[in-house]
Amino acid sequence: MNTTYDKEADPVLSREDAIAILNTPDDQLQELLDRASALRHKYKGNRVSIHILTNARSGNCSQDCAYCAQSCRSKADIDKYKWVDEDKLYHNNDFVNEHHLSRHCIGLSGMKFTDQEIEELARRIRKMKENGTHLCCSIGFLTEKQAKMLKDAGLDRINHNLNSSRSFYHNICTTHTFEQRVENIHMLQRLGFEICSGGIVGMGESKEDIVDMLLALREIQPEALPINFLLPIKGTPLGDADTSGLTTEYCLKVLCLARLLVPKTDIRCAAGREVYFKGQEKKLLSVVDSIFASGYLTEGGQSIDGTLKTITDAGFTYEIESA
Ligand code: SF4
């Protein structure tokens, strides 16, 4: 690492600095963790925010994202439905409030929606906002009109991941482009949405691709930056992907780099936490301040009770945000 390290100042990393961070020798990882941890504590204290995901619309997507069980080229055995049962949606929302968790994240498969579908979503959002829940929707490309409908309904945040670098993107998806994603995010920012945007590590990309994705995210300055570590799903094109490069050390270096590049943003360890960081949660939480409990869109995960125990055992507290 050739960047001069001033403990008090936030680092301003060049692309070369960032690549060097991903190439940190494992025996120097602790020094990197210390740098990231100092920023984590400076901006996020000792707290961890917990999010619960509901897959509100599952499967039958027109897009061909290689990692995704819901894509048009996936043969994964998953539930497919247009709208999740409303009781389940509202039950999950109550769960977020009863446990004083940070946010209810609502995923919808698909890239395009009719105004009628957005109005149906807006109705559900209005109902959940009656309880003051902080809501985020993971949703495809909205028209400006549709985005305003969701804003008026009270939606706080939208998740739209970059997923990988601009130059690697065509390897994982051919039905839309990286640029479309960036433009969509800028439109949402102009309308005043908080943005959650991150990516996936382990799809065959290079370290340079990870750096370029994170530099693009630094430009966007999202409120939250989730990093997923690939969980290969049988029946998807990446079902047999080689994840041997996803050592805990490498995964930690990626998260440290995210923290160093966008220190004030919530850095979330999303999918893969339970697999790639098992037994290393204290180190993980020294860098990230945000995690999911109770699983991911189509994959299971650690229960809420287990997650709370993991956080407190590691010496952290969990954030109480919702009304
Ligand atoms: S990631 Fe989203 S857009 Fe891509 S296939 Fe899955 S549901 Fe569709």
Summarize the structure in words:
This protein has 323 residues and is an alpha/beta fold. The protein has a single domain (15-318), classed as Aldolase class I (TIM Barrel, Alpha-Beta Barrel). The chain is built from twelve helices and ten strands. Strand 6 (199-201), helix 8 and strand 7 form a beta-alpha-beta unit. The N and C termini lie far apart (44 Å). The model is unreliable at 1-5 (pLDDT under 50). The structure holds iron/sulfur cluster. Iron/sulfur cluster (SF4) is lined by residues 61, 63, 65, 68, 70-71, 109, 111, 140. InterPro entries: Aldolase_TIM, BATS_dom, Biotin_synth/BioAB, Biotin_synthase, Elp3/MiaA/NifB-like_rSAM, rSAM, rSAM_sf. [4Fe-4S] cluster binds at residues 61, 65, 68. Pathway: Cofactor biosynthesis; biotin biosynthesis; biotin from 7,8-diaminononanoate: step 2/2. Belongs to the radical SAM superfamily. Biotin synthase family. Residues 44-273 form the Radical SAM core domain.
